[in-house]
Amino acid sequence: MPRYDLHSHSTYSDGLLTPEALVRRAALRGVDVLALTDHDDTGGLSEAHAAAEESGITLIPGAELSVSWESHTLHIIALHIDADNATLAAGLASIRSGRDDRARRIASGLADAGIANAYEGARKFVTSDRLISRTHFARFLVEAGHAKETKDVFRKFLTPGKPGYVKHVWATLSDAVDWIHAAGGVAVVAHPGRYKISPTGMRRLLGEFRDAGGDGIEVLSPSHTPADYHGPGEGWLDLGDLPDLPAGITPIWSRWQES
Ligand code: AMP
Ligand code: MN
Ligand code: MN
Ligand code: MN
Fold first, then answer.
1. From the CA of 137, which ligand is nearest?
2. What is the pLDDT of residues 49-70, one digit of tens each?
């Protein structure tokens, strides 16, 4: 069986490796099929494709879309997309467009808590002009000595009720699924175990996702234990470290292998 890893981030969002370095690392670690799924952007895919060709591995074009559902932020993974599709590209641009203003509001919350110049601080960790995320604030706050590691920063500063958390409205669930389908891709609920949603809420969410045409659920995710892959040294698992799928599950790749 080929080794799949269908969720990863590069410097085009909040990962630490360039798409090229990410693909090379995946290949060295025995991954046969890698998806690059940067947050709200597909800018890294052409570089990743070129590197995949050189490394002899298969690159599945993807993205991870930020969605607001009820009071929650969810992530929907897009896989096997045509990244040139105009509907998806416009959708992703609309999600990204709110991020800078949100970052300034995060910084202002942190300033109220006595941490000055967090916007400028986070910017120093930004690796793509198109995207600033809480991860960049986390790296800044660790560097500035406000926490030991990124997961402590989230707990202390960047999650609901904490000074660097601001409400933000992302894409709707049905828009995200529609954009992904417009681009010929499949839509997968990312790391459902990470959401603070009750069992009843989860049934409602998955029902709505199914009714919206959603295709799959991420089963194996390091964030069902530690955080997902953003680069060496952050999180516990490396590329290709995921265990086999449990028996009885239809793998998502059967969807594009059939066609
Ligand atoms: P954003 O899209 O700007 O809200 O940033 C979300 C990103 O923050 C996620 O993709 C993770 O990389 C990171 N993140 C969220 N929660 C945590 C956490 N508890 N520990 C470490 N990283 C986290
Ligand atoms: Mn991330
Ligand atoms: Mn995610
Ligand atoms: Mn992710």
1. 1
2. 999 999 999 999 999 999 999 9
Residue 61's beta-bridge partner residues? 36
Q: By C-alpha distance, which of 227, 225, 221, 215 is closest to 251?
A: 215
Ligand 1 site residues, Cβ closer than 6 angstroms: 14, 39, 66, 133-135, 150-151, 154, 227, 230
Dihedral of the alpha carbons of 86, 92, 96, 98, in degrees to the nearest 10: 90
Atom of ligand 1 nearest to the CA of 132: 3
Rounded (10°) CA dihedral 236, 190, 16, 137: -100
The model's pLDDT over 21-57, given as tens digits with 9 standing for 90+, comes to 999 999 999 999 999 999 999 999 999 999 999 999 9
CB distance 208 to 173 below 8 Å? yes
Q: For atom 12 of ligand 1, which residue has the closest CA? A: 135
**One-character DSSP codes across 202-226:** HHHHHHHHHHTT--EE--S-GGGSS
Start-to-end CA span in the chain (Å): 19
d(CA 238, CA 230): 9
